[in-house]
Amino acid sequence: MSVGKAIGEFSFTSTGVTVSSNPGEEWSQQVNLEGTATGFGTIIGTLTFLSTEPGADNGFTTWAGSSYQDDGETGGGLGRGVFEKSGTNKWRVRSLVQITGGPLLLTDGEIALEGRTYVGTIHQWE
After folding, report:
1. pLDDT at residue 3, rounded to an integer
2. Can you give the three-state secondary structure of 90-115, one letter per residue?
3. Based on the structure, what is the number of domains in the chain?
4. Which of 47, 74, 84, 101 stands the most exposed, by the fewest C-beta atoms within 10 Å?
5. Which tens digit of pLDDT belongs to each residue from 8-50?
6. In sequence order, which residues have a C-beta less than 8 Å from that of residue 27 and are 6 or more positions away?
7. What is the mean pLDDT of the chain?
């Protein structure tokens, strides 16, 4: 089953991480990212991993990001998704992202501790 037509790729590098917990005992790891995405230019955003325990193999994610294109246009996107362990210090992240004034997108990527990278594909919802 296809999730939609692939329309591009993204490639981000982490610029820092904040680990915390809240009173409800939910753990979060906020990963600040920057890089590029096909059709969106430069992206700066935060991917937050949410789980019920530190070091969990799976859980939920949120995304908040801003885009800056070469022509001066700016935009943003908010998303929610899931993550699951996909290897040693690697996690697959699949998200549904709503672009401000634009289409609903699906992203499928992998974040890796080594190299502090997050790369993947962008699909348009069909």
Report:
1. 65
2. EEEEEEEEEECCCCEEEEEEEEECHH
3. 1
4. 101
5. 999 999 999 999 987 777 899 999 999 999 999 999 999 999 9
6. 19, 20, 21, 50, 51, 52, 53, 54, 56
7. 93
What's the rounded mean pLDDT across residues 95-120?
A: 95
What CATH number did the domain enclosing 92 receive?
2.40.160
Q: Among 51, 47, 42, 62, which Cα is nearest to 22's?
A: 51
**85-92: which pairs have CB atoms within 8 A and are 24 or more residues apart?**
85/57, 85/58, 86/110, 87/112, 89/113, 89/114, 91/49
Find the domain containing 69 and state its range. Answer: 4-125
Tokens 């680990």 appear where? 19
Tell me the DSSP string of the chain: ---EEEEEEEEEEEEEEEEEE-TT--EEEEEEEEEEETTTEEEEEEEEEEESSTT-SEEEEEEEEEEE-TTS-EEEEEEEEEEEEEETTEEEEEEEEEETTS-EEEEEEEEETGGGEEEEEEEEE-
Stated length of the chain: 126
User: Residue 54 has which token pair?
Assistant: 């530190």
